[in-house]
């Protein structure tokens, strides 16, 4: 009977969606349990590795059997051939050393398979290196660097993985084989001794490259600490390490790097700048967080090799340097933590140029958690590990993801990260370190912040994270919203996907114009107004070969709502054939959900995005999780499903039209308003839609008043090209007339207020007070929406009703205006009235 129940339970589990049965949910996983999981994840990966391995038809020139892991350019001497073989050789060797008795291998893999693949791939790696030349690569050549005149880009990174593979198999290697490893590493290090250390930060940082050069020097010192060249290798290691995350301040930094070794300072080792002044960097001509964080991982793996190799092989650490932690904490604190999301991912405002949602920053978290004892990093590492584990479970062969961008190379890199995380905890346990709570972390990093060197703005609230980027290198102007969750639900946290196309992407979308390209050029790339955890950003772009002009504003409010408004005009006569505005890219992927439930006023539809589905109505909600409210009479469309950097992604357009329209020069094309809400259901979305008010404004202005789920109201008012002040009249809500940050005249018909702003600037208000009455002037405190001031415009006593909102509750108080001016505050659910000066 028990066996029958177990079988039934297994069937039920297998029928459940992957996201539902994945062990993603739950609290912080203790170190020992996480390590057990990581080790088993690598064991599960063995099926993929076995299928990817092939034996060589012939041995090397001294008769040693060898084989190779396949890649995009199998057995070749470049990154597409050497790197996957080196990484996967290292993983097999690691499993052989640490996994026996601790993991269960897949049914089709044996420990003999693991050990054979580890050794044969290692033999192939050292045999095909230029230092040994025991076997040729597929191009009848060899790989690796031996001198400044005979160097291959990135070979030191591959050599580092070869060294780890050798270390894991050290007791199985003959003295002759160890010498081949020595000759390989010595050649790579000799190149490092005599080459120039590169610097540069605009478009193509050298930080990552210097990090992997440090790696090969560290593993060589770890394996051969007593070599006559070791002091030179050590000196060069420190130089490469300091010039990985090198910052302009290093030029004058008199901090002694290694006081127990010598008196050299940071400025003595500094060669040049590889980071922008705000600690950001660019690679491939733009900013993204994979390149921003990877240096921490590289330096951490170098520090790990020094410690692990020397301790195990020699019983002591002859070589150790603090240079390997240079600015690791600073980059986290100044950049990466501001982009960390509730699932451990690091936000990528302009997307990635390889597979998305890899969580391969896990080893950077591990480095700072294990070496620097950083509780923030420990918490984020735990999230990332759970997400990697979850995504691996979407595959049938233990591979890390579906539709990998570069096949085995991507698999090797991901396995590399998982392995290094396990090793760091094995060597430097964090069992005594208490992780930060996510709620505390997001509170610390909630403030709106501009990464000025990259022209990126971001902010976070408990409900969601927002960002927008003006990437000049990519000529890409896009951003996205990430709903924040406390229980790790991939279908929610990964609902919206970083996306760029046609120079724009999320938020903006695009128009299609007859005879014109679909593109965009920035005219005003970001004017910002930051307040606490909120920002308003104004921007202006010309699109479609300069035919249309879009002036827009995004208000990331201090609450839940994110508001977009625009004013689109024709610069030239043209025919618009399609409008695809208000875009958000939605994942419809095995990692998240392959179908999404879309709710509108017309009903409910389950869609996978393979067909373009058009809907009508003023709002749409996805999965009772993410709501969008629109104004106007445009359609909503969902579809155009495609592979977006390994994530199947559909496009949700909330301002969609296929109806051709011809517009004349200077004619208004659109005046749109869209509000986004995270972690709300369809019923709440409908209510928020009812409360949304597009305001009547003078020509050139646009304005909207949006409600938040907690009943707060937000005003976004933008002067796109207005020539005079904006007068709002008869503004009202179901709570009464709202009080703004400018003098607000209260009458029975509502509020009247006048605002001024320069063109391409906005006014944003958070409104918590509403008044029912007349002949009163009110104004909200400019710095605190929980305080207003009232002035009685009559010479007689009068009564007014004040309604105030706080944390989703409404409070009312009848106030007698006996004096000319009063101060009113709201705190802890109580409306208090004081004498005040208006």
Question: Which descriptors would you attach to this protein?
Answer:
disordered N terminus, 838 residues, 39 strands, 29% helix, ten-stranded antiparallel sheet
**What is the end-to-end distance?**
79 Å
Share in β-strands: 25-35%
* Percentage of residues in helical conformation: 25-40%
Low-confidence stretches: 1-23
- Tell me, rounded to a whole number, the average pLDDT: 95
The coarse overall form would be: elongated
CATH superfamily of the domain at 446-691: alpha-galactosidase from lactobacil brevis
Please give a structural write-up.
Residues 1-19 form the signal peptide. Keywords: Signal. The strands form eight sheets. Strands 10, 11, 12, 13, 15, 16, 18, 19, 23 and 24 form a ten-stranded antiparallel β-sheet that branches. The model is unreliable at 1-23 (pLDDT under 50). The longest helix is centred in the middle third of the chain and has 26 residues, at 289-314. 29% of the residues lie in helices and 29% in strands. A hairpin with a 4-residue loop joins strand 5 (464-471) and strand 6 (476-483). Among the domains are: 446-691, Beta-galactosidase, Chain A, domain 5; 737-835, no CATH class. Helix 7 (155-168) packs parallel to helix 9 (207-223).
